[in-house]
Amino acid sequence: MNKPNMHYAELKDSYLFYNISQKIKAYLAEHEGTHLYRMGIGDVSRPLCDEVIKALHGAVDDQAVQETFHGYMPEPGAPFLRKTIADYYASRGVKLAEDEVFVSSGASDELGDILDLFDRENSALVIEPAYPAYVDANIIAGRKIVHLPAGRENRFLPEPSEDAVADIIYICSPNNPTGAVFNKTQLKAWVDFANAHGSVILFDAAYEAFIEDETLPRSIFEIEGARTCAIEICSLSKTAGFTGTRLGYTVIPKDLERMGLKFNDMWVRNRTTKTNGVSYIIQRGGAAVFTPEGRRQIMENIRYYKNNARILTDTLDELGIWYTGGKNAPYVWMQCPNGLKSWELFDLLLNKIQVVGTPGEGFGACGEGYFRFSSFGSVEDTTEAARRIKELFK
Predict the structure, then answer these.
(1) How far is Cα 139 from Cα 130, in angstroms, rounded to an integer?
(2) Residue 74 CB burial class (10 angstroms; 0-12, 13-18, ≥19)
(3) Which of 129, 153, 290, 325 has its CA 20 to 30 A from that of 332?
(4) 359 forms bridges with which residues in the sheet?
(5) Strands 200-204, 168-172: parallel, antiparallel or unpaired by DSSP?
(6) In whole angstroms, how far apart are CA 232 and each of 67, 226, 274, 303, 381?
(7) Dihedral-angle region of residue 121 (phi above 0 means left; psi in -120 to 50 means alpha; beta otherwise)
(8) Angle at which helices 79-91 and 280-289 pack, to 10 degrees?
(9) CATH: 3.40.50.620, 3.90.1150.10, 1.10.940.10, 3.40.50.300. Which one for 6-48+294-393?
(10) CATH code at 50-291
(11) pLDDT value at position 15?
C-alpha cells in the first residue's frame, strides 16, 4: 500500500496568506468595486529597472542566433553570474570563491530545497515571529522544531539560549515579518553559539539591500567564524523586483563540513541531480542588477519603497503606536492599538477603512498582538492608507 507523507496532516489547515485572500474575496463579493489599500503580502509593485530589461532583451536575441544560443545552463549557475555575485560580495569586504555561489530560482524555493542537506533526525530552531515556510517545511520533513520566542522586550532580536539548542538555526535579518536587524555583536553571538554546538545557520538575507545603516551586517559572512557554520540564502525578488522573474543565490562556504562531508560538495551533487539550472535569459537579467548602472536604478526603487515605510512610521509616531522595522527593512511591525488581537485588527482595518495588512499571529504565537505592514505598494495608496489609519485611531 502506498503510504503518503503523514506529516502533511500536522500542518495548519491553511496558509496565512490564503486565509487573508479568502477574507478579501468575501469582502469584495459584498462590496463590489471597492478599492482596497493593500499593504499585506510583500510583493513588489515597481517594474524591473531599464538595465535589467535591456539585458533580458539582449539574452532573448542571443537565443535567436546559432552562435550565441544557449541550451541547458550549468546547474549551480552560469559562471558569468557566479563571478558577478562574488565580486558584489568582495565590494562589501566579503571574500568568496566563485564556486561558493550557487544560482537559484529564488530564496523561497531554496529555503525548502536546502533541507535536503540535513538528516531528518536533525532539529530546527525557528526564532518567532517567523516566515511561516520555515516551520512548515520542517513539519513536512518530520523534524523536531524548537521555537524561540522574541518580543518587544528584546526588539524581536533574541540572544541564543542553552535552553533552545538545535542542529539547524534559522536567522532572517532584516527580519520578515518584524523588520528588525541584528547588529554585528548580536550576530557574532549566534555564530559562536552555532560553532560551539555544531549547528548550521540558515541565514535568510532576502532583504539585505534595504539596510541603510552601514554599521549593520548585510551578510553573515561579515562575521568572523561564519564560514564554518552558515549558509546564506539571498533573493533578487525584493532587491530588484524579480518576484515574477524568479532568481536568487545561495552561498555555501567550502569550510562548512560535518562528519567528513562538505556541504558545498553535497549541494553541487544535489543541484546536478535535481535541477537543470536557471534559464540563460533570467541569469543575464540578474547579472545586470550588479552593474554600476543597475545598482543605481534598483536603489531608486528601494528608496521609493523606503519612503512608503517612512510614511507609515511617521503616522505611527504621531499616533504613539509602538513599532519596529521600517528604516532598514521594507516591513513595519506594529503593536495592535487598544488591546486588539491581530485578526481583530485585520477585520477592523478591512471593514472600516479598506486597508489590508498581515496579522502577526500568522507568523507564530508570539506574533499575537502585533501587525505587519508592507511598504511595497504605490506611494499614492500608502499615503491614503496612512491618512485613514490616522483618522481611525487619532
Answers:
(1) 14
(2) middle
(3) 290
(4) 371
(5) parallel
(6) 36, 10, 20, 24, 34
(7) alpha
(8) 20
(9) 3.90.1150.10
(10) 3.40.640.10
(11) 73
Is the pTM of the predicted complex or chain greater than 0.85? Answer: yes
Angle at 155 between CA 149 and CA 161, to 5 degrees: 40
Q: Please choose, from the candidates 305, 393, 301, 302, the residue with its C-alpha nearest in 3D space to the C-alpha of residue 355.
A: 393
Copy the grid coordinates of residue 333. Answer: 511591525
pLDDT at 366: 94
Q: What is the DSSP letter of 4?
A: -
The set of cell numbers assigned to 312 is 507609515
Q: Is 325 left (phi over 0), alpha (psi -120 to 50) or beta?
A: left
Contact status, residue 249 vs residue 101, Cβ threshold 8 Å:
yes
Q: List the alpha helices (DSSP H) in the chain.
A: 16-30, 50-62, 79-91, 107-113, 132-141, 184-197, 237-240, 263-274, 280-289, 292-319, 342-348, 379-393
Map out the domains of the chain as residue ranges.
6-48+294-393, 50-291
Residue among 239, 261, 257 at smallest CA distance from 248: 239
